[in-house]
Write a structure and sequence with these properties.
The complex is a heterodimer of chains A (about 475) and B (about 100). Chain A has 15 helices and 11 strands. Chain A is an alpha/beta fold. Chain A has one domain: Amidase signature (AS) domain (Amidase signature (AS) enzymes, Alpha-Beta Complex). In chain A, helix 9 packs across helix 12. With about 100 residues, chain B is mostly helical. Chain B is built from 3 helices and 2 strands; from the N terminus they run αααββ. Chain B has a two-stranded antiparallel sheet with strand order 1-2. In chain B, strand 1 and strand 2 form a beta hairpin. The chains are: A alpha/beta (about 475), B mainly alpha (about 100). Chains A and B meet through helix 9, helix 10, helix 11, helix 12 and helix 13 of A and helix 1, helix 2 and helix 3 of B.
Chain lengths: ~475, ~100
């Protein structure tokens, strides 16, 4: 796919299109499409138009323009933008105004990108359909009776329906890649430690990463380059100097044993057809054994709720957000949370509290952390003989709204292919490779730790091969 | 199978008030999920150690000092207090009752 960012940059600098026109088109599309799709929770009209005017004045003065300068971007509403509402799609934060910019927002501002608005998500990023938003679900632009995936459903839809060229989401167990797959766009979760989470409302801190949505690998790479790097406010972030050498042939490992679990045969066909096309363009596919990944989802549903129960304890109605009226401090806490949190959030807090409680800690939490080592080791072994792992992003295409809301476990199984990369801290992306029953299918590529640019180079070659 | 009493205890530990509807629904939902995660018991772990984090070990900490902020930033923080009195954050008494 061609880069929308480069095309817009070229149009701005050659004065074929002004930044104000680009932002105006973006706002007009939101006005026209968002009443049906509900991708946005807040649109920053005044500040976006002001920024566009500022950059147009720079162009008029003959100043040089950075590649992201003037490009409209949408941000998942769990990323803080100073002075504006940031709700995490939760009632408990419905009146919260962020008092500082997230690290990624500072980076975007200095690169000159224009924040057009904040997008819908499952409450506190917990869910795989955006139906857990307390402000109503987002719809899939390919079929509005279906979910866009989640939790970053709003960002995926904003890009897929051409409301903005790029967006940011967050991915704890697949929350960028799964909606990207369901909506037919590129979604990239960088290596753990590559992008600072300062100013991202924490869900599960040993897994959370911020990453791009785009319509091409090149645009995802441009956006990633702008936001990656060390930040003193996130001690897990690192400065990585990565040298990418272009290889003549890439070897991709296909986890045949792991992929058997619940995969829709129609999706399998689209994925294998894309392999056939890529074989003609210097890709080689070999089977790799990753059967230990079948433990990943169970492992994830211990570690994630444990960290959720700890991270969400801060929403106690004391310093920000809503506060319930009650006589005792205990009642203020428990009534505030009861009124402010939705059903999925409460369920995960309860499971997290259970697995961390005395007597169960070793059996659940410690056991899960040991399984995490097993999964990490399985990937390390596979990467001795391949450049990346290739498998579907999701076991099925976008499902009908409401079809899984009554069964949390069925919803969790949607994450089966995406969760392993989070547990092992590896970079992973979803690339659209075709359709099944007129709905998009995503191929997932998982790379070596901190080889993010190499993974993007492989994906770019794959994208060209199947074009 | 997790019991109703255990669910009540979990909600109390987490400081969340449960509704009647939640207490009816959650024992089964939580039990289903716990049954699923039980499959970890059969994982071939041998002597593998836990991976608690992929973060680098911390060699350098920030200085433990106050970071000066603009008055407008301070005001923005104070504006978020659900209940306040002047510069004070108001809450229920922590001890007693």
């Amino acid at each position: 796919m061609t880069s929308q960012i480069r095309a817009l940059h070229e149009a701005f600098t050659s004065k074929k299109k002004s930044v104000a026109e680009h932002i105006g088109e973006s706002l007009a599309r939101i006005g026209e499409r968002d009443p049906t799709l509900h991708a946005f929770l807040d649109v920053h009209i005044a500040s976006a138009e002001r920024e566009a005017g500022r950059i147009d004045a720079k162009i008029a003065a003959g100043e040089k323009l950075g590649v992201l300068e003037g490009i409209g971007i949408a941000l998942k509403d769990n990323i803080l933008v100073k002075g504006t509402p940031t709700t995490a799609a939760s009632q408990i934060l419905k009146s919260y105004i962020a008092s500082y910019d997230a690290f990624v927002v500072e980076r975007l501002r200095s690169a000159g990108a224009i924040i057009v608005g904040k997008t819908n998500l499952d409450e506190f990023a917990m869910g795989g359909s955006t139906e857990n938003s307390s402000f109503g679900p987002t719809k899939n632009p390919h079929d509005t009776s279906r979910v866009p995936g989640g939790s970053s459903g709003g960002s995926a839809v904003a890009v897929a329906s051409d409301m903005v060229p790029i967006a940011l989401g967050s991915d704890t167990g697949g929350s960028i890649r799964q909606p990207a797959s369901f909506c037919g766009v590129v979604g990239f979760k960088p290596s753990y430690g590559r992008v600072s989470r300062s100013g991202l409302i924490a869900m599960a801190s040993s897994l959370d990463q911020i990453g791009p949505f785009a319509t091409s690998i090149e645009d995802a790479e441009i956006l990633f380059r702008a936001i990656e790097g060390k930040d003193p406010l996130d001690m897990t972030s690192q400065e990585i100097h990565e040298e990418v050498r272009d290889k003549k042939e890439y070897v991709l490992g296909v986890p045949e044993d792991f992929m058997k679990d619940g995969l829709d045969p129609k999706i399998e066909k689209v994925i294998r057809d894309s392999f056939k096309k890529a074989e003609g363009a210097n890709f080689k596919f070999v089977p790799v054994s990753l059967k230990d990944l079948s433990y990943a989802l169970a492992c994830y549903y211990i570690i994630m709720p444990a960290e959720v129960s700890s991270n969400l304890a801060r929403f106690d109605g004391m310093r920000y957000g809503d506060r319930a009226d009650a006589k005792t401090l205990f009642d203020v806490y428990s009534k505030t949370k009861a009124a402010g949190f939705g059903p999925e959030v409460k369920l995960r807090i309860a499971i997290g509290t259970y697995v961390l409680s005395h007597g169960y800690y070793d059996a659940y939490y410690l056991q899960a952390q040991r399984v995490r080592t097993l999964i990490s080791k399985a990937f390390d072994d596979a990467f001795r003989s391949v450049d990346a792992i290739a498998m579907p992003t999701t076991p099925s295409v976008a499902f009908k709204l409401g079809s899984k809301t009554a069964d949390p476990l069925a919803m969790y199984l949607e994450d089966i292919y995406t969760v392993p990369a989070n547990l092992a801290g590896l970079p992973a992306l979803s690339l659209p490779v075709g359709k099944s029953d007129n709905l998009p299918v995503g191929l997932q590529l998982v790379g070596k730790r901190f080889a993010d640019y190499e993974l993007l180079a492989i994906a770019k070659r794959f994208e060209e091969a199947i074009a | 199978m997790i019991t109703l009493e255990e669910v009540k205890k979990l909600f109390a530990l987490a400081r969340v008030e449960a509704t009647t509807e939640e207490l009816e629904r959650l024992p089964k939902e939580i039990s289903d999920i716990l049954a699923y995660i039980d499959k970890l018991k059969s994982a071939p772990l041998g002597e593998l150690p836990p991976t608690l984090s992929f973060a680098p070990s911390v060699e350098e900490l920030r200085a433990d000092s106050a970071v000066s902020q603009d008055a407008s930033d301070n005001q923005m923080l104070k504006d978020q207090f659900p209940e306040s009195s002047g510069d004070y954050l108001k809450t229920k008494k922590v001890f007693g009752d």
